[in-house]
UniProtKB/TrEMBL annotation:
<dbReference type="Pfam" id="PF14017">
    <property type="entry name" value="DUF4233"/>
</dbReference>
<feature type="transmembrane region" description="Helical">
    <location>
        <begin position="7"/>
        <end position="31"/>
    </location>
</feature>
<feature type="transmembrane region" description="Helical">
    <location>
        <begin position="65"/>
        <end position="96"/>
    </location>
</feature>
<protein>
    <submittedName>
        <fullName>DUF4233 domain-containing protein</fullName>
    </submittedName>
</protein>
<dbReference type="InterPro" id="IPR025327">
    <property type="entry name" value="DUF4233"/>
</dbReference>
<keyword id="KW-0812">Transmembrane</keyword>
<keyword id="KW-0472">Membrane</keyword>
<feature type="transmembrane region" description="Helical">
    <location>
        <begin position="37"/>
        <end position="58"/>
    </location>
</feature>
<keyword id="KW-1133">Transmembrane helix</keyword>
Length: 119
């Protein structure tokens, strides 16, 4: 049986990777042409990879810890692209819901399995 919390959290992190990718392009495009450097692209690329890495690491607690750290970092991206305060906040709420609802589903599945084992 699939782990619902891991599935929901991985979906959230995968979606965030796309959002971070597009926010990186926006941040890069906001800088005047003569002042552009690859810094925004490198930092954004690292964040995208970390989102995908965290999604793949969700079998262990470290993946969830990295996911929590990424939520904070992505919200802090609002200092570069102000709309990321809102988008990052929305994804942080989705992340929290994924964890809370996923835990609830796991408990309910365990309860059903215990009931079926007794019968």
């Amino acid at each position: 049986m699939r782990n619902p919390k891991r599935l929901m959290a991985a979906t959230t992190l995968g979606s965030e990777a796309l959002i971070v990718f597009f926010a990186t392009l926006v941040a890069y495009g906001l800088v005047p042409m003569e002042q552009r450097s690859s810094t925004y692209l490198v930092v954004g690329g690292v964040l995208v990879l970390l989102c995908l890495l965290a999604a793949g690491m969700l079998r262990r607690r470290g993946g969830y810890a990295l996911g929590w750290v990424l939520q904070v970092v992505i919200i802090a991206g609002g200092f570069v692209v102000p709309l990321m305060f809102v988008v990052g906040g929305v994804f942080a709420v989705i992340w929290i819901c994924s964890i809370v609802i996923g835990n609830r589903i796991e408990r309910e599945q365990a309860e059903v399995a215990r009931r079926m084992a007794r019968e």
